[in-house]
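Lay summary. Proteins are chains of building blocks that fold into shapes, and those shapes determine what they do. In this project we predict the shape from the chain. Here is one chain we studied, written as its sequence of building blocks.
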Amino acid sequence: MTRVRPSLFLAIACAAAVLGACHQGGLRNEAEAIGEPFITPANALERAVVAFADRPTPESEAEVGRQLLQSTVYLSVDAETASEWVKGRRDMPLNLWNVTLPDGRNALAIYTGRDRLVKAFKETDRHDYIAIDGLSALRLAGNDKPIAINWGISPHIYWGPEQTTKLLQAHKAPPRASNRV
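And here is the predicted shape, written in a compact code that computers can read:
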């Protein structure tokens, strides 16, 4: 696992302390800036992330969830995993990159675009990735793991395991009966 650059971690940790991203052992669903201007959104998921960061409401949070489930996202992986994934081999275990959050927990790093992932890792050699649908990414994270959307760029979002579980459970719900004949 690659570790976050100390200067970047310190900037994020300081921002988290100021914004209150960590509290009493829990993690709120919260967006934060890291001293850079917000990205210019290039897709619907990024528009939802920026809207949530600008004005966090239950509605803007729900929109991030909707867009995440239907968008292609990018996960940083080791070179071997990326190579096998390109060859179509989907049965192998994935060596996904996780980030260490300010409260010490690990979170799956999910990126809204290839260029966002490359920007986040601009000072490292880590540019191997897979493109996957958001629902599959959440399933990889599992119910008990937080996620970090666009970690290392501004804004990024921390979502606790409760939110991941909520989205996964909502997607597992049986389809509603239609009134159409």
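What the prediction tells us: The radius of gyration is 16 Å.
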